[in-house]
Structures are given as C-alpha cells and as structure tokens.
Amino acid sequence: MKGAAGNGAEHRRGLWTVEEDRILTDHVKVHGKGKWNRIPKLTGLKRCGKSCRLRWMNYLSPGVKRGVFSEEEDDLIIRLHKLLGNRWSLIAGRVPGRTDNQVKNHWNTHLSKKLGVKQRKCKINASSSKSSKESGANSRTELKSNDDGSISCRKDEAEIHNAMEDSSEKVRETSTSLQDPVLIGDGYDNFWDPYLCAPNLMEFLDQSLDLFWDGM
DNA sequence: AAACGCTCCAACCGCATGTTC
DNA sequence: CGAACATGCGGTTGGAGCGTT
C-alpha cells in the first residue's frame, strides 16, 4: 500500500483475513459499533481503529449490499452525482445498501467511463488530497442535514459566504428557483450546486430528484 | 505455459470536524 | 477554553484476478 507513515508498524495492513473478519464481527455484535480505537486492544486484532471501522462499514455491516449495481442504482447514482458532485457519503445515503466507498469506486470505474465524464472538482469542494497537502489545508466542504431541517457545513462561515457571494453572479444570471437551477462546474456541461440554493438538504434532494426524473 | 497489461475494488492516507475531559 | 481523542470524508493506490499476446 502507501507509505509507512501513519499507523505504525504494529498494525497489520492489506486485505483482511476470514479470521480477522470473524473477530471484528463478533466484537461488534457484542459491544456494538463505536470506540473503534479500542477494538485492537480488546480483541487482539493487529489493525488500527480506522481500519476496523472501515472494514465494518464497507464490508461486514449486515446492511451492506454486495454484488453488481443494478440499472436503477446506476441511474440513481448518476442523477445524484449530477446534483451533488463527489459527495459520496451523501450519494450513498440515498442508495440503499451501498457504501460511499462502493459508490465512489463504481463511479470511478464504471459510470464515469460510461458517461464519458471527466473527473470534475466541485467549485467549493475544490482541492484533491495532493493539493491539500501542498497547500497545507484541506478546503473540503461538507453538507449535513440537521435534525431541525437546517443545513450545517464543515467550513468557516466566512468562506461559505464568500463562495456564495462568488457564485451569486451566476445565480443571478442563470436562475432564481429550483426550476432554473444554479449552473456551475467544468466536468459536466452544467452542474447544479444544491449548496447554493437549498434551505433543506433532504427536501432539496427529493425535489431535485423529482425534477430530474420528470425532466429526463 | 509464461509474460505482460489492464481492470476493479478493498484499503490506506491525510485532513476536518465533533466530542470528551 | 484548549488539548486529546474519536469519527467521518474524499482522494488515491496496491495488488488480485482476468484477458490477451
């Protein structure tokens, strides 16, 4: 795998064995999810907590669907990606049984080729991990729908405000409503950034999906 | 049969944010 | 309030498996 930095030599790396899977599954069944960093100590697994979490979330969790993606799933992912960009966790949240990693892999290996889409970078979600390293900061922005229906976002409010201001010109030029969405982006001819106009993410998604289903 | 190249997915990394103390 | 720890995310990559030469 990648460089030795990070978890140290005390942790095993690479593919999980059946025995490791069994130990982790047994532990989660008994103790539940969470406190991943304690699992190696408690179980004797020579894996870091992050690795345990990832293995459970992406493979061992009973909710995870295996096997090939159906046409319907493909279609849903394509539409959601058009709406959300590379926000894989959000997309996966709308595709039952699929994880963000599965969706991301499927997009990168199948769907992007199928559609002939260049890997786009979200306007706000600007930098790759490499450029993040170079700049010393990750400018990723994440949308989250809260219980009260509002949207919270992992980014300084000032930056958010600036981004919105920055885009306001496009907003004025291109749209004032959901029926006439905000169009930005480079990979697609048009990209509608929900971040710029949605008061409520899930409501927005539902509306948007409806519009896309109707419009296609 | 061996060597090579390609595809695809599991897993890793670095970073940001959230939580606890 | 700040430090330490825990969790979650997206980008990237190693390598198993398969097809081709």
From TrEMBL:
Q: What is its main location?
A: nucleus
Q: Which GO terms describe its cellular component?
A: nucleus
Domain Myb-like: residue ranges: 8-60, 61-111
* Keyword Transit peptide included in the entry's annotation: no
- Low complexity bias located where? 126-139
Keywords of this entry = DNA-binding, Nucleus, Repeat, Transcription, Transcription regulation
Coiled coil keyword on record: no
Q: Where is the HTH myb-type domain?
A: 8-60, 61-115
Disordered: annotated segments: 126-151
Q: What is the protein's species of origin?
A: Salix udensis
According to the UniProt entry, which residue ranges have a biased composition of type Basic and acidic residues? Answer: 141-151
User: Which GO biological process categories is it annotated with?
Assistant: cell differentiation; plant epidermis development; system development
Q: In which compartments does the protein localize? A: Nucleus
A GO MF label? DNA binding
InterPro entries recorded? Homeodomain-like_sf, Myb_dom, Myb_TF_plants, SANT/Myb
Q: Name one Pfam family in it.
A: Myb_DNA-binding
Q: Under what name is this protein listed?
A: Uncharacterized protein
Residue spans making up a coiled coil are none
